[in-house]
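>> received
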Amino acid sequence: MKNALLILTTSLLMSCHNQAQTSTSAMETTQEPTSIETIYQFKVKDLYGKEFDFASLKGKKILIVNTASECGLTPQYKDLESIYEKYQDKNFIIIGFPANNFGSQEPGSNEQIAKFCEMNYGVKFPMMSKISVKGDDIDPVYKFLTQKSKNGLRDSTVEWNFQKYLINEKGELVNVLSPKVLPTDDAIIGWINGK
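>> returned
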């Protein structure tokens, strides 16, 4: 009788142990992985009011930069245009987003910004309509760029005008560079060239 009771208890314990392992495995396999967003989900308006679809940039490296016309860093437009001209045929593009978040240094309308960029720096890379890059009215593109839960890389804060976000050919954020990093810096040129 003791042997029968011992065998029954052992069988029950083994059954519970196996069932617990099966439940744990089932729980592990049913958890959905966190999906990381890409830049390709966004459609925005350019300076002229035309829709710009980031999905049209699949397969290209993208440098996104927030710009301002009355900033000490505004001369970076010249270097941005220079690298755009040099590398645009190598699956590289720059997208500018004028923003008035820092010291009211981009007070103009979209039309005024377009004229300023053309006249002073000959900007030909795509410029989008003026947006907010921080605060309660932050644009969805910049929510993606600044929130790790959306971009999968890291949280960041836009420090000032001309902060740079590097997006790979799959639409994923791969680096965030300070406004003081010049467009001609090795961190950008090396990345464009795959180094």
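>> The longest strand covers residues 61-67.
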